[in-house]
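Example record

The entry below shows one chain as it appears in the dataset: sequence first, then structure tokens.
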Amino acid sequence: MTGSATTPSVRRPFRDMRHSAAHTLLLLVFAALAVPACSDPARERFERAEKAFLQQKMDDALADYRSIPIRYPQSRYAPVALLRQGDLFGSYYRNYVAAVEAYGSLLFNYPRSREAPSALLRRAEIHLLQLFDHASAVADLELIRKQYPGFAEMDGVMFLLAKAYGGLPDLARQGQVLAELIEKYPNSPRAMEARWMNAYRLLAQAKYEESDREFRKILFLVSDRKEAARARWGMAQAMEGKGDFEAAIEQYEEMQKDWEDPDYVSQKVERLRKRRNTR
């Protein structure tokens, strides 16, 4: 009698405890499902910065970009925020020193990130085009070639590198880079720019035979009449440098009608005829 009276009082709390635990577990599951999928504060801040940028609220965008690597250094948005920060400093605020610092911070803290080669390229552009520090530009661009050989913008890297070597000046190394660019990326617009740069480089070095040959290659490749006239001008300059005035006159006359200043070409032809006749 005593046992039957006490049994319900022992079992009931046990059943209540199981029911309570299951209920609590269900509540926790529903609470987890109720949390928004986008619960990444770094992502939210980055998206807010991107929106501010599109709305031309540059100060607000910069403030958010700068805060992400400080508050969320382990986030995948930290390196891209640093890249955006550098771009804003460089292109909008024209604060090139701050831009270089932002790119440098990205490279130091996130050297394996996919943004790293872009940071190197943009830092090199500032060194070359804004600060005229050709040696630093060469160092950054050569580092891209060494550490990120599969970088999608390698043709642009090599073109800038050729410019940087030309400013040192290291014309022999410049010629090697231009030749490599033309060979590896023949269909790139940078390859044609490299051909022009190489032809003028040779002309400036008084390597007239080589320069003439490069301008002739360009003439064969271009279809635009203005570009063809420009190539013939280079050929005529090379022939004039060699002292072949007759051939130079022929090229000047051939391109005269497509030149932006035909009268200037006429005057040049007259001067060459006089020089030819007085030899």
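Notes for this example: Residues 1-19, 21-37 have pLDDT under 50 and may be disordered. Residues 44 and 143 are 33 Å apart (CA to CA).
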